[in-house]
Amino acid sequence: MVKKRMVIILTIIQLAIFSLIGRLVQLQLVSTESFHGINLIEASVTQRTEQLIIDDGRGMFVDRYGQPLTYEYIPTLVLFPFLKKMDWPIDQMAAIVSVPKEMIKRQLEEAKGPIILHNGQRPIQLQSWQMERINELHIPGVIAVHKQYELKEKYAQHVIGLLGENEKLLKERYGDRKLSAKKVGVSGLQSSFDEFLIPDGETKLLYHVDARGEPLFGMDVKYTEQANPFYPITVQTTIDRTMQQYVEQIIAQHGMEKGAVVLLDVETNDVVALASAPAIDERNPYKNEAAQNKALLPQVPGSVFKVVVAAAALENGLVHGQTFNCDRKINGEPEEKKKGMRSFEESFAISCNNTFAELGKQLIAMNKNMFDIYAQKLGLLPRVGWEGDVYHFESFRPLREEKEGKIWTDERDKHVPLAVAQTAIGQKDVRVSPLAVANMMATIARGGEAKQVRIAQKMMYKNGTTFFTFDEKRLTTDSLRQETIDKLQELLQLVVMHPEGTGRAFQSLPYTVAGKSGTAETGKEKLVNKWFAGYFPADRPKYALVVVQLETASAASVTNAIFADIVRATYELEQKGMNEG
């Protein structure tokens, strides 16, 4: 009986030993890279490794002059915690970086991992000669590197867009591809360029430790980076960082709660500055639709649309010196403010609704698609942002959040005189984006050539060579006659120069301005969209500018004040540049 029990016990012990051996074989030889979804080799290395990420590997955005828009690289001093248990030339290091030795000691004593030597909230920024001297010393655990930091001040947040941790989106875009990225572009250029910016790996400093956390001697601090020497990619935008900063400050100073500003370079049709209000609060970016880029979304334009009707009327011979009754509303009722009989030119300058309602009805009687035809010739429809093939991406759109404008929702309205009249003055169902309106102004200022709007100039490899160039592109080859463009330029200048013109407040600016105002009913009680769209200098156009304040009480509008301040800021920057040159 005892013998039998002994056999059973020995058998159980043998089975247990064999089970343990089998488990060890599975862990050490069979499932080392896929044990319950865990790579045991990587996990063991991680457990024995201290590291400091100095670059997350994601591509960056810069402005037209190469100034960073997302993050910068600061030359810093990295110290590893095992230094506090070693005898190393701390006095020499303190002398090189010009800080008290006690500061270095204190920060090392508090360190639980690799640290950046700092003075308060920001790292101590090294000079190039300091970096060279530090690295020439070859002290284990001491290294000078350029570390990636987010910019203290955010620029063009609505343009650049947001990053977020979104596993579903990451999976949809990249499938089972192994990536080091935890964040993905969820809006703006971060989203549209995500495939080019997504990191293949991080750049980091690391060293290995034993079970007690002591360094494994003979193994110095290692520097690892992405295997591909050409990445990450840098996207050079068309934004002028300084001008963008001015625009954002001006919007904030005037307290515009909802609206947009677009500033274009007339010659190239590049975005110089683009801002949307309200600003994005990173703690709650989607509160009050703040993350929406209002400059790319169709809005009710009001009288700004009269530019389209004027162009069509001029090209189709409807303007021949006649006068129009500006004492009447578009429905025939009397206006509260009498303006008398006015010429076509004066009607444009003072923004007489009845004139353009009458011309609009005549135009639609001639051709039901007349408004659409001329809106496209002027670069107002359908979308105006750059679009083209970029490697294997067909119809790549940097401004992918831009929505198409529209003039009609119901085709039957083209047969209803009052609906046509309302449409002719930019009401009813007319919707166009501030970006598109700016493009229309740039088209007129340029002499009639409608171009696509660029927000990106090129993509560059890590070594600075060009990866892809976003060439200037025509939006349409169907242009207005030169005499029509010349007349439109005169009309837009008259808006400012006429004593009753709706833009007469801009007469005293350092640059002469040409443009068109717009006050659009929104359908919300007593709230309007307040526009001014134009270009400057009027005699030699360089910039097209649109400012729109959305859903505001007309009397409280800051549109004109913002427009004027941006013109002044542009003038001051150009004068400063000329003086420095």
From TrEMBL:
<dbReference type="Pfam" id="PF00905">
    <property type="entry name" value="Transpeptidase"/>
</dbReference>
<dbReference type="InterPro" id="IPR036138">
    <property type="entry name" value="PBP_dimer_sf"/>
</dbReference>
<keyword id="KW-0131">Cell cycle</keyword>
<feature type="domain" description="Penicillin-binding protein transpeptidase">
    <location>
        <begin position="259"/>
        <end position="567"/>
    </location>
</feature>
<feature type="domain" description="Penicillin-binding protein dimerisation">
    <location>
        <begin position="58"/>
        <end position="215"/>
    </location>
</feature>
<dbReference type="InterPro" id="IPR050515">
    <property type="entry name" value="Beta-lactam/transpept"/>
</dbReference>
<protein>
    <submittedName>
        <fullName>Cell division protein FtsI/penicillin-binding protein 2</fullName>
    </submittedName>
</protein>
<dbReference type="GO" id="GO:0071555">
    <property type="term" value="P:cell wall organization"/>
</dbReference>
<dbReference type="GO" id="GO:0051301">
    <property type="term" value="P:cell division"/>
</dbReference>
<dbReference type="InterPro" id="IPR012338">
    <property type="entry name" value="Beta-lactam/transpept-like"/>
</dbReference>
<keyword id="KW-0472">Membrane</keyword>
<keyword id="KW-0132">Cell division</keyword>
<dbReference type="GO" id="GO:0008658">
    <property type="term" value="F:penicillin binding"/>
</dbReference>
<dbReference type="GO" id="GO:0071972">
    <property type="term" value="F:peptidoglycan L,D-transpeptidase activity"/>
</dbReference>
<dbReference type="InterPro" id="IPR001460">
    <property type="entry name" value="PCN-bd_Tpept"/>
</dbReference>
<dbReference type="Pfam" id="PF03717">
    <property type="entry name" value="PBP_dimer"/>
</dbReference>
<dbReference type="InterPro" id="IPR005311">
    <property type="entry name" value="PBP_dimer"/>
</dbReference>
<dbReference type="GO" id="GO:0005886">
    <property type="term" value="C:plasma membrane"/>
</dbReference>
<comment type="similarity">
    <text>Belongs to the transpeptidase family.</text>
</comment>
